[in-house]
Design goal:
Layout: H1 3-10, E1 27-30, E2 35-45, H2 56-73, E3 77-87, H3 92-108, E4 112-120, E5 124-134, E6 149-152, H4 158-164, H5 170-174, H6 178-189, H7 195-201, E7 207-210, H8 215-226, E8 229-233, H9 241-245, H10 249-254, E9 261-265, H11 270-279, E10 285-291, E11 296-300, E12 303-305
Helix pairs in contact: 2-3, 4-6
Length: about 325
């Protein structure tokens, strides 16, 4: 049983008043006649998401940024956050750096930290985030339509490369340049969801999801929610040339923690999306199309291939 089977069987609670409950990047509840409130929550645990040696500043940044990504993917503007943290010891130097990182991320995305909880125990960080979403431009996983173009907002794979580089075969390790190592580490430690781009393009988008579990796995969530299929040209997926030169496409597509946005867009908006990506200095690209049949077809240079894995899952 993986994470999603677990949720479906045991935690798929029904909602009587929420407009959208379990099953998307954020829940939606009524706020006023023009807006919904979007609410999401993520947890990071020691030994799984970070270690005792992890830089507390970047851990603070990432803890908030991964939640920002959920609100962004719904077409929302993050506003408030609650922090719950368990600490093994009261290390004031560590705490000072951690809070400096979370404050820096909050400043970038104009978020207020308004409360939370502190406990003693194994180090664990949970953040609940709230934002507002225009009722006219809500982005959900269920909005994809056959004929839509599939776009990703930026390059994928850096975080996965940083996390998995020690398990690569020696020949692949040797081919990783210092520049690529540095970029991969930066993307892993300090994700920056494309809030401004999505705010400017949300009226053009039919469906969206944030890339936390890997492009392949998160694309499948859109397909399942929208009851559609997809054709993907892997060579069009934006990624560093190292992945292509070393045939490490699956690492880039399935590794996760990109915190970019995968979206489906009507063909008529193709040029607008392309121009706005350039405006926001994003290396995004169109990578395929939505189809009627409920299956996904991957091609590499026109040749159909199958992936050996679909993306990251807890308990998978």
């Amino acid at each position: 049983m993986n994470e999603f089977d677990l949720i479906k069987k045991y935690f798929n609670f029904t909602s009587n008043h929420a407009l959208l409950g379990i099953g998307d990047d954020a829940a939606l509840i009524p706020f006023n006649k023009n807006e919904f409130m979007a609410i999401s929550m993520d947890t990071l645990n020691i030994g799984h998401h970070f270690t005792e040696d992890s830089d507390p500043y970047y851990l603070g940044w990432k803890s908030l940024a991964v939640n920002v990504s959920d609100i962004v993917s719904m077409g929302g503007q993050p506003r408030y956050a609650l922090l719950s943290i368990s600490l093994k010891n009261l290390d004031v130097n560590w705490i000072g750096k951690f809070t400096k990182g979370i404050k820096a991320c909050a400043k970038k995305y104009n978020i207020e930290i308004i409360g939370g909880d502190t406990n003693k125990g194994s180090t664990s960080i949970s953040i609940a985030i709230m934002g507002n979403v225009s009722s006219k431009n809500v982005l959900k996983r269920s909005g994809a339509i056959p004929g839509d173009e599939i776009w990703v907002t930026n390059e994928v794979g850096y975080a996965a490369l940083h996390f998995n580089q020690h398990s690569l075969l020696p020949k692949y390790k040797k081919s990783i340049s210092n520049c690529l190592k540095k970029r991969s580490q930066e993307e892993f430690l300090k994700p920056q969801p494309p809030l401004e781009f999505i705010q400017e393009t949300k009226s053009l988008i039919n469906s969206a999801i944030d890339l936390s579990d890997g492009l392949a796995g998160d694309l499948q969530h859109i397909l399942n929610s929208s009851s559609v299929g997809a054709k993907i040209e892997i060579n069009e997926i934006p990624m560093h040339k190292w992945f292509k030169e070393n045939n490490q496409y699956e690492l880039a597509m399935c590794g996760g923690e990109d915190y970019q946005i995968l979206m489906t867009v009507p063909h008529k908006h193709h040029n607008k999306i392309q121009n706005l990506l350039k405006k926001h200095s994003l290396k995004g690209a169109m990578i395929g199309k939505i189809t009627k049949d409920k299956k996904i077809e991957y091609s590499l240079h026109g040749k159909k291939i199958k992936l050996s894995k679909e993306g990251f899952t807890h308990f998978g």
